[in-house]
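user:
I keep going back and forth on a fold encoding question. Separate attempts, laid side by side, tell us more than any discussion would. Would you put together a sequence-and-structure record for a protein of your own picking? Write it directly below this note and I will take it from there.

assistant:
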Amino acid sequence: LTLMMNPDQQLARVSSQVADRINEAFPGTAPGNPGNGPAVAKNNQVVVLKVPAQYKLNLPRYLRVARLIPLNGPGTSISDYQRKLEIDLLDPRHTVVASLRLEALGKESIPVLKKGLESSNDLVRFSAAEALAYLGSPGCAEELARVVRDMPMLRAYAFTALASLDEAICQIKLKEILASDLDDEGRYGAFRSLRALDDRNAIVTGEHLNESFWLHVVAPDAQPLVHVATSRRAEIVLFGKTPSLKPPFSLLAGEFTVTGGEGEDRCMVSRIPSTGGEPQRRSCSLAIADILRTMASLGAGYPEALELIQQADNCKSVSCRVRRDALPQTVTVQELAKIARAGKGIDLTEADLRRSGSEPGALPDLFSAPSARTKSGTSVIQPVSARD
């Protein structure tokens, strides 16, 4: 990332001071370059920023925090400034901005932010917990998990903060949410967050079928759900005990046909190549995971897998709900601050959430929504790269 100095501040002294202050706030956080800060003043106009690891899932927040770092170094004025922020943090009208400014001061703000966790106000506790996560303090995990459960409009931020803090308690909380009876957005948000935090975790590693798409079978004791993604990553996530197809059905997906007769406990997967050649047929169980594995073994890719699930859902042949891109919705940071300043509650309508979440760059990168939409607002399936 690059910071450009304002035209009236394009001085070597200023750009160097900006870089020094960013490095003091984030010491030794440059990825692959331990012991050095993330900022380098290239000349009088440009400061180049590397992204600290804790912000890799939320670049908008990193830029927001970096721009709030005071140019003055540690001293009496900073102490006075911090004391004012401590007061503002506990005031719901100012807490969103105050928590960001405290985060911009670095780890010295952790004791102050922990006081925010003791507030009786939901927004104050959330703002303090989110800032603590990016400062590396695990004491925020319990509050962030509560926000996920009780405050859907703030889930995207809470999930991203949990996924940005590499602490055991964050994994524990995300696993609990994944296996809970929370709604679809909550459970899929937990899956995406847990995978972003540690993609080698056995719970979320999954199978890469035909080098085309990922299949994940998770939370076997939870309510069944089939989730498909149409952006960023070719993946199908199966929640709960054995999501399956209900016969009778006859489904066509490209060169593949999947049929199951009334009362049968197995189905037939067939491939008839469009370029000619001998048809291939294999029998498998009615479990969606087995059907997808069988199709992949016959050469199916992600488009065929998506088409099969979509057709089965349209025919009401799936034993549970099918969801596409069930991403948490939220308001922008700016709107949240505006609501807080007005002294209003933070209960918004579904329409408010949809409108707020549509602003480019409004959400953390982990939960950015698919960009392709029809005029009615329905997602359009686009080609998805098999690359992770």
